[in-house]
Amino acid sequence: MEKINFNVPPYIDKAMDYIKECVDNQKICGDGAYTKKCNEWFEKKTGTKKCLLTTSCTHATELAALLADIKEGDEVIMPSFTFVSTADAFVLRGAVPVFVDIRPDTMNIDEKLIEAAITPKTKAIVPVHYAGVSCEMDTIMDIAKRHNLLVIEDAAQGVMASYHGKALGTIGDFGCYSFHETKNYSMGEGGALLIRDEKYVENAEIIREKGTNRSKYFRGQIDKYTWVNYGSSYLPSDMNAAYLYSQLEHAEEINQVRLQSWNHYYERLEPLCRNGKIELPVIPEGCVHNAHMFYIKAKDIEERTALIDHLKANGILAVFHYIPLHTAPAGMQFGRFHGEDCYTTKESERLLRLPMYYTLRPEQVDYICDKVEEFYNK
After folding, report:
1. Are residues 293 and 190 in the same domain?
2. 33, 141, 238, 267 — which has fewest CB within 10 A?
């Protein structure tokens, strides 16, 4: 029996040549040639004012929180159905995550519930684009504008996805990407901060470089650099950037291959959906997704557990996803849920992610779908 993993990190042969080039040039630390190439690629591809590669999406979000001047006692509105880093970045600044319910169709924050959660302490809204499918950003940006709030997009899963023609991560004030090994494009561990407004760029460079103006020094703008503000080290190794850049050169191809697998899944499993056995992902009008994941929804947590066991017995690793943050010990300690949890817990307990990666073969998708059908036809 062939074993089908849930994820296989993307790899392009050219990566090892680029990594060797870093070693041969004796430049393996941060902000080398490949880091700059990646930054420039994203700036050109997305139209963002500035892209800064970071060591993780977690660090990109922390950097955004610093630039947004999040302070103790501030409140930040976000969904509870997300990874811990979305909240951690603000909790570290002493802020309170205010969780609101999600939409059951996209698993994204329910934009209609945001305004009611705003208080005089609210400083920012953090929409999370789940599965590379955009939140309803026009509504969110309108709310933010009327209440003078910043918008920090958690676009960890959103590289190459868009909303009404705008790249995810470029709509809000800041956008955060992930290049973890589970993402469409990977550098093992890594991320990027996208900055919409040029006024934040210089400070972002300073904070990212341990609070120094080293970036200006390397550009020849000053004759020596010094410590000018608080900061940390958010620079990934240039070897990691080299690994990522090899994939960016094939970004469209990788995207198309993943979309083919996603569409293959959808076509094969649609009859089960029509018969009311499962639910399939929803892509709202105006959203272009990136096939980051393919998930189905079972009837309940018991059925999902049985399906996971059935797939595992047939060599297929399928997994559930986030445990809602407001139900976790740290979520109860540091944050609060505003309103009623109508969908966050219920929908998270039904969701099951099927294997999805660049090298997933059509016959493997067929086999997985065969086994899902087998489970429901018993």
Report:
1. no
2. 267
